[in-house]
Amino acid sequence: MRRYARFAVMITLASLPVWSGAGAAGLPNIVVLATGGTIAGVGNSGTRGGYEAGRLGVDQLIEAVPQARQLANLRGEQFASIGSQDMTDALWLRLARRANELLPSPDVDGLVITHGTDTIEETAYFLNLVIKSAKPVVMTAAMRPATSLSADGPLNFYDAVAVAAHPDARGRGVLVVVNDGIHGAATLTKTSTTAVQTFFSPLRGLIGEVNLGRVEFFQDPHRRHTLQSEFSVEGVSALPRVDIIYAHADMPADLIDAAVAAGARGLVIAGLGNGNMNQVALAALARASKLGVVCVRSSRVATGQVLRNVEVDDDALGFVAADELNPPKARVLLKLALLKPRPLHEVQRLFETY
Known about the structure:
Elements: H1 2-13, E1 29-36, H2 58-63, E2 73-82, H3 89-102, E3 110-114, H4 120-130, E4 137-140, H5 153-165, E5 174-178, E6 181-184, E7 189-190, E8 199-200, E9 208-211, E10 214-217, E11 242-246, H6 254-261, E12 266-271, H7 279-290, E13 294-299, H8 314-317, E14 319-321, H9 327-337, H10 344-353
Parallel strand pairs: 1-2, 1-3, 3-4, 4-5, 11-12, 12-13, 13-14
Antiparallel strand pairs: 5-6, 6-9, 7-8, 9-10
Helix pairs in contact: 4-9, 6-7
């Protein structure tokens, strides 16, 4: 399997240009934290959809893209070997702690984190809020397993190393590099179940682009992150339960009531349009709010903002409007917000700041 994966990427990467940065003796030191995902997936066929995520180890991923060692000195750590659908709060906390252990070292100039595409936007956003360093942290992934015909993982990995090694990547928070794009953690979202061009940042656009290792930045992230963030998970052993409930026509109230009964401390509604829901669900959410559950209105719509007091009287009902955050990211922010008691107006400020 190792020979197969190496052969597959040697064909596509043999002529890649190298970013003209420091000489060989002065290359930056990048640690690769591998969590599994499709980028490390293995299938029985190069042209069929079935595969097992997370089969290849971090050393195999690095060895399969030898050109990346022309960009940086690479050292790998196998953090996990899962499909990202199995990412958990506990793994988030461990990953954040490991990143915050590594980054202060003078021997570490940045991190590359390989991940599955299913929840990469949530992991990236979580890390963006709790990592305490200006050094580059770049996540990458793949839509096709390593054994697939025309696998996208090798070039994504190469480009991620190029971005992590680039001096202008400092201070931009957690970045996600896929399919030539450099996305900010707060803005990207997955839009296709199968297409390689699945990730977009529809509201704010790309932070930059990377073309065969050549990096160009367009803008800084527009929201606070990393060193600017007021959040910390130091000493935190568990995150509060926050549930997402999907709104639809003729939506019943029982799922909202069940989530409250099950112990949810926060609820995010993936609402219709501008975070809307029918009157039955609205009344149930208001009851939850009166019980002390923090209720956030987001939207199931792909782009746009959910603003306060447009069609729903958030002030009267005690709700928070998610602003630009989609439901998965609203859930991440609410989990962190609930680590300490906050009045609702303070939670709203967080959603307008991060």
